From TrEMBL, chains A, B:
This is Branched-chain-amino-acid aminotransferase. The modification N6-(pyridoxal phosphate)lysine is found at residue 197. It comes from Saonia flava. The keyword Signal does not apply. Its cofactor is pyridoxal 5'-phosphate. Its EC number is 2.6.1.42. It comes from the Bacteria. The keyword Transferase applies.
Length: 355, 355
């Protein structure tokens, strides 16, 4: 049995913090990093005890499998600081579990829960000063694993690195986005890796998104690869559609990520008495609903942006605008979820996790 | 306009070669590397002039996009040394062109042809001693590009590295393989990135292959993601099926790699007077042909293994054995292609390229 008890994570602190160089009033997303990072190596068939070291470059052999075969997975999380200076995570065990679900599909050895959770808490306590307190800001946390083992043979690596890096961040998107419903490209296959947070799922989206941007849209709505008739995801987020007063989202599958924001929104919406349907959404019904004036809202949901409202969509060379609502589900649900995250309200579902 | 003339590639040589430490009689595939590598950086919107430096580790920020979003592509090539000590490549411009086809799909800036070809030739001239001369051995060449630019935003990187590393190698597979026709997992989606040599395409195959190995097979035969009724690729290779005396391979598509070995085999087979069909292959016809005794051969085709004969396949919990033939297409075609590669025969198609 592997010893997964983490009694004493070795911490090597920086000599001088760089925190004074950071403009906390003008943070972009994920572009400045805190003083330290957690590193945990998989070698000789086991994960070693994690350690915390100064944030620093990673050195790899040119034949490291990450460069050649895309064996990498990640998670996205946030730490929130409330008005009492207490630090909170949101459903972190769900990220830990999903990391291992992704790991399994990508033939990466699963990481012990304790290494993830104790490592993360130790890192966040050390980096507490880096967690912004202002409205909408948070410490974006990026746990990731990649294949560091060497060799050109197309097979799983024998060594991996698990790293947690943190970036104090403002909000991810600003304003509403106009989206293109994809008719040519696709994000994932049946029996593929779309449900995993695998690196390659994201790189594959960049080119179709660039094409959509050239046509005047900001994001792509992904559809199934076989018929392009079912709506699956919005960019790198899950998607919600409101027709009349019913909120609809697609069921998770091997093509669709089991988003933590997605399932939290479903719970909150049901708690609000909103009729929620988890079922396949067709492009035709969305187009028809728009024509009839009963398509009230569309929005993406994910950790980075929380809720990202959509102002309109393009499909088969036609554009469809969504109405401006005085009280939208998007803003209601975003407020309820962020109020829980920032400890501004009761946590009736037990989602907050104190660091 | 970018200046893509490469007059003088700067070469920084190693002080002491490590070639004396290598056992050239016992080379595995892609696990020891030559003294030098080519490195070319993309920065400030342009590829810089490539340089050759001692083979050495790569240093990257933990937020480098390769770790998070799988933005990486590669090629596989070989250099062959003939009995006169002359060095040959096989259709290298096709690799150069395909690298840029992959680059476009993965939102990676295209690399000037001259940088690839002049860089490669300069590197191979420097590493000539490393190219094995023995039967079946060659210098495996791995050109690859990955996103080195920083930041957690899920968008294309602003910096990339193009590297060519080389590994003197023995043959990739030994012996025939037993394969499992996949009924659950899949390799690529319509409108996806399956035709590109993108890293993520390979990592996604590891887990289904592990499951097949547990069942007693060595490789997976990939089928379409929608019906699992069409045969698409064999592991990381293209696939050929011989029914009676007709050689059949699937058409290239956005799901299937345009393999250089594949198209060379088609040309040679036609030159041999073998009836060749390029059309979709159904699982049912392969199973039926096997039952009737007219399924003569199946083999994979790719740069690393050249031709990899299949001894039998599993499908829906049944196993089907292929016959042992005295004169197989696989061995005929492998001999003809390798004879051209190693300069043992006339090059009637103009495929050899002298370094």
């Amino acid at each position: 049995m592997m010893d997964t008890t983490v009694q004493n994570i070795v911490v090597e602190k920086v000599k001088t913090s760089k925190i004074d160089q950071i403009d906390f009033d003008n943070l972009s997303f994920g572009s400045v990093f805190t003083d330290h990072m957690l590193v945990c190596d998989y070698k000789n068939g086991a994960w070693e005890i994690p350690k915390i070291i100064p944030y620093q470059p990673i050195t790899l052999d040119p034949s490291a499998k990450i460069f050649h075969y895309g064996q990498s997975i990640f998670e996205g999380m946030k730490a929130y600081k409330d008005s009492n200076n207490d630090v909170w995570l949101f459903r972190p065990l769900d990220n830990q579990k999903r990391l291992n679900i992704s790991a399994k599909r990508m033939a990466i050895p699963e990481l012990p829960e304790e290494y993830f959770m104790e490592g993360l808490k130790t890192l966040l306590k050390l980096e507490k000063k880096w967690i912004p307190q202002s409205e909408g800001s948070s410490l974006y946390i990026r746990p990731f694993i990649f294949a560091s083992g060497k060799g050109f043979h197309a097979s799983p690596a024998d060594e991996y690195k698990f790293i947690i890096a943190c970036a104090p961040s403002g909000s991810y998107f600003s304003g509403k986005v106009k989206v293109l419903i994809e008719e040519t490209y696709s994000r994932s296959a049946n029996g593929g890796v779309g449900f995993a947070k695998a690196g390659g799922n994201y790189a594959g989206q960049f080119y179709p998104t660039q094409l959509a941007v050239k046509k005047g849209y900001q994001q792509v709505i992904w559809t199934d690869d076989n018929t392009h008739e079912y709506i699956e995801e919005a960019g790198a987020m899950n998607i919600f559609v409101r027709i009349n007063d019913t909120l609809i989202t697609g069921p998770t599958s091997d093509r669709i990520l089991d988003g933590i924001t997605r399932k939290s929104i479903i719970t909150i919406a049901e708690d609000e008495g909103i009729p929620v349907e988890i079922r396949k959404i067709t492009v035709s019904e969305v187009v028809e609903a728009s024509k009839k004036g009963i398509l009230k809202e569309m929005f993406g949901a994910g950790t980075a942006a929380v809720v990202s409202p959509i102002s309109g969509f393009g499909h088969k060379n036609m554009n469809y605008d969504l109405p401006e609502l005085e009280s939208s589900y998007a803003s209601l649900l975003k407020k309820r979820i962020t109020d829980i995250q920032y400890n501004k309200t009761e946590d009736k579902f037990g989602w907050r996790y104190k660091v």
